[in-house]
Amino acid sequence: MVAQNVKEVIRKLVAIQKIDEELFAFRREIRQKPEELAQIKLHFDNKKELLHKFEARAKELELARKAKELDLKSKEQDIIKADGSLMQLKSNREYQARLFEIENMKVDKAAIEEDVLKLMEESEKVLKQIDAEKIVVDGEEKKYLAEKEKVDAAVQKLTEDSSGLESRRREVMVTVEKEPLALYERIVENRDGVAIVPIVNNACGGCFMHLPAQVINKIKMYDVLVRCEICARLQYLQEDL
Length: 241
Ligand SMILES: [Zn+2]
Fold this sequence. Notes:
The protein is mainly alpha-helical. The protein has helices at 3-85, 92-173, 178-190, 213-221; strands spanning 196-200, 203-204, 226-227, 234-236. It folds into two domains: 24-172, Orthogonal Bundle (Helix Hairpins), CATH 1.10.287.1490; 177-241, no CATH class.
């Protein structure tokens, strides 16, 4: 390749590089936006799960209370029955014994009543938590849906802009020889969208490694494409273009 040709190839690759800078930035955004949205979704899902836990707890408490209320009812019936049987007892000893039983049953009944009250209090607390959590979940859902709409629109816009850039890129690409173009493509994919860099203050514009004078001289000759020994990117001098 003669010197003029190498410079011409570099000019074109630099033009592609300018497009690729935007293109890779768009691609990064297209990748990142759904990831950010997933974080918001996760937060929303966690809040929903907490609400479901409260609801399950409320159900549990209700069932426990119903069971206790049945216990209470049967205890009350036992007491009524025992009370009614007192008159039929013959001996004072039996009478006293039955009275003692009845007293014990009343103590049990009071304990059950206390349990019912406790369960009702806890239910009330959980129901309040459910009401508060529902407001939170509603808010999170609105936030997520609004964000999703924004992200979907942004991704669509980025995708459209990208395809515009891609067609501009193709226009330049077809004017570049196959071999240097293939080399450029390999580097740009492996080096996160930056394949060709200017020398800045005698250092590689990609990895900032200082370059010896003979390397810079080699680049200036434009006989061959020169790559950085450290980051493997193609190099050129801005003022030569
Ligand atoms: Zn470098």
